[in-house]
Design a protein that fits this description.
The protein is α/β, with parallel strands linked by helices. The protein has four domains: 117 residues, DNA Methylphosphotriester Repair Domain; 54 residues, Arc Repressor Mutant, subunit A, CATH 1.10.10; 66 residues, 2-Layer Sandwich (Double Stranded RNA Binding Domain), CATH 3.30.160; 84 residues, Winged helix-like DNA-binding domain superfamily/Winged helix DNA-binding domain (Arc Repressor Mutant, subunit A), CATH 1.10.10. It has 17 helices and ten strands. It has a four-stranded mixed sheet with strand order 3-1-2-4. The protein has a four-stranded mixed sheet with strand order 7-6-5-8, sandwiched between helices. Strands 9-10 form a two-stranded parallel ribbon. The chain is elongated and about 90 Å long. The two termini are 21 Å apart. It binds zinc ion (ZN).
Length: 392
Amino acid sequence: MRLRRTLLIMMQTNMTFPTMAGSAILAEEHSDMLPASSKSKEPIPGPISDDRRWDAVVARDRARDGEFVFAVATTGVYCRPSCPARRPRRENVSFYARPEKAEKAGFRACLRCRPRSFSGNPQSDLAKEICRYIEQHLDEPITLEHLGKAFLQSPFHLQRRFKAVLGITPREYADSCRMRLLKRNLQAGDNVTRAMYDAGYGSSSRLYEKTSSQLGMTPDKYRRGAIAASIRYTCADSPLGRMLIAATERGVCSIQFARSDGELLEGLKREFPFAVRKPDEGGLEAWVAALLSKITGKESNAALPLDIRATAFQRRVWTYLQSIPFGATRSYSQVAQGIGQPTASRAVARACATNPVAVAIPCHRVVREDGNISGYRWGVERKKTLLELEQS
Ligand SMILES: [Zn+2]
């Protein structure tokens, strides 16, 4: 039991899933483009009356940001003077010299104007806010007019202030964000159309060309290079005929059976068309031995680290399959029930048929309702042999 659990955990930790990069990470990465925040402004000598503060709030006076914050009793939120949100009624507003004081009084920071992030440098703060805004709106066309409206600035001034801090225009910044996101999506193995779409590009041929010139190559080629993780493979004899094991640095990514090595290599090429495939130089022997002892039952729990991609559904099915004991079988509908989706027998059959690592994930232990040995990706004969080996 403990061994089995270990294998399951290994399987889970070694699986890689396509990820979509979030824009929050982009914000982090770009923060180095901003100048270090200068020290907080010295308080302006002399008391400022609440009436003058209120005037600044009504005017959304950006120049007064950092001097004070205003808190709204009805919402429990505090803002900087320039917050673009709707103005509250005067009688609900109180003023605090610093964000900490407003928080001590029980107010929380406004998500829109982020009064806490104020660095004392309005220009740099504005640029930072614009960056965040752009990162959150990459899938929309962002025009200067649009930004001007969002930040209550004339498009001309907004662009000038942004460029003064970052040295590039908002549009160039948006382009660089999209490019980063696209690269990351492609590296994660997303298909080109989806990667482009998720990075805020359309999929028109014009954009494709533009992207290609920025990447220095076509997105397909970039993706291919990125996931051309070199795969090592080796072929060996097994009770089921010739067997191929292929692995990345992280674990076994493919186990196949065929009559000849040529057939096996063809199969590997179909599975990983863009990978660099190299014959193994001795590192895979232990895994070949482990797999053989799994097949013969000599050590049915032998652990094999796996590096496979799976949808959430496939992962659930495959994890369940690993819990079927050596020598036992389950029907497709039993597996469907086992993963809590009793009506998904057909999808379970599909998940079995797409198992990339034969035997390591024992999809051969799933049989038809009447006990008949039905389809197997590697042929019914091999499935029969495997089950017989497990019975003896
Ligand atoms: Zn606010």
